[in-house]
Give the backbone structure.
Amino acid sequence: MTAPTDFLRLFSIKKGDIIQKKDICSFYDDEIRALIAEWGEPSFRADQIIKWVRSGVGSFEDMNNLPKELRQKLGEECYIAGVSAAKKLVSEIDGTVKYLYRLFDGEYIESVLMKYEHGYTVCVSTQAGCRMGCKFCASGLFGLSRNLTASEILAQIQFASKDNKIRVSNVVMMGMGEPLDNFENSIRFLKLVGDKNGLGIGYRHISLSTSGVVPKIKMLSQYNFPITLSVSLHAPNDEIRDRIMPVNKKWNIEKLLEACKEYQKATTRRISFEYALMDGLNDTPECAKQLAVKLKGIMSHVNLIPANPVKENFFKKPDSVKINKFKAVLEENGINATVRRTLGADINASCGQLRKKEGDYIC
Ligand code: SAH
Ligand code: SF4
């Protein structure tokens, strides 16, 4: 068992003090058991605590089947990070709910609850901010503040589920932040999200989206989670990708697609490629042709996303004629593609519009 030191660090780094409490909701069952045994408590207490922790309990006080002393000890040694809703917006068009959550240390993140025919999906943030610097995206405008812990990612789903009295069946790791730049916590989240005492969300109902952190794609493939890997490609060649995604200078399209092939070989899963169509930049039939050639030999699906406007940049979405032409060229060349439906358009809930600083929220 590895010591969950990452959670201890959270307090000491942020606050510069020596408070080191354990983020117990990010612990695996065996880590909770070990901790409770260390305190000399019987194992059934650990079972009770595990149940509470997985249920998304808000405080140790609420653990009403534990003796007062144990609740006190938990409060002294551990913390429940959780999220609290600073703002909530409900779309009048389709009922999509966007939450602005405040974290325990005053950071802000966003999360979106969407209703589809097959159930409810939550789009979770994995970092406060992002350091990848994609030119078309609002999440990275102010850089990275910090990584979220696994419990803070889980809490976004638990909150939306309780607030709306619904069961969340799908999760997309497509909110603010780059999940593979927060690798350890994202893995921990993936291992906890399916817990039968908790959210019970199966891997086949989870998508992880990455801008292309190549070594981490390779590491992820070793876990062999049957999740869907979404790769934000957005360009058919390095010339265009270099201009909009700094990550491409480190790992170019060739390296990225090679990692995708490796991932596919290891997991046998189809890869989903995200392609935000930006007017006059990457939306020509020639671009579609180049993209099709690049994706040959990969079992893939392309999600075309008409670029969402962000006030700090000048990217615009193409008109529907260009979008449909792009899709048609891909299909003529044997590549599956769909144009993504926009949900929550009236509340700026779409991709790339999530922002870090409260003052900057459009909502
Ligand atoms: N950091 C990860 C996941 C979060 S971003 C990633 O980049 O994949 C989720 C998706 O929204 C990505 O595909 C991203 O490229 C896309 N996106 C960001 N800004 C956008 C915008 N303005 N319009 C359309 N899609 C955007
Ligand atoms: Fe970060 Fe993804 Fe936005 Fe790029 S698109 S800045 S990786 S959140």
In short: The chain has two domains: 5-79, 84-362.
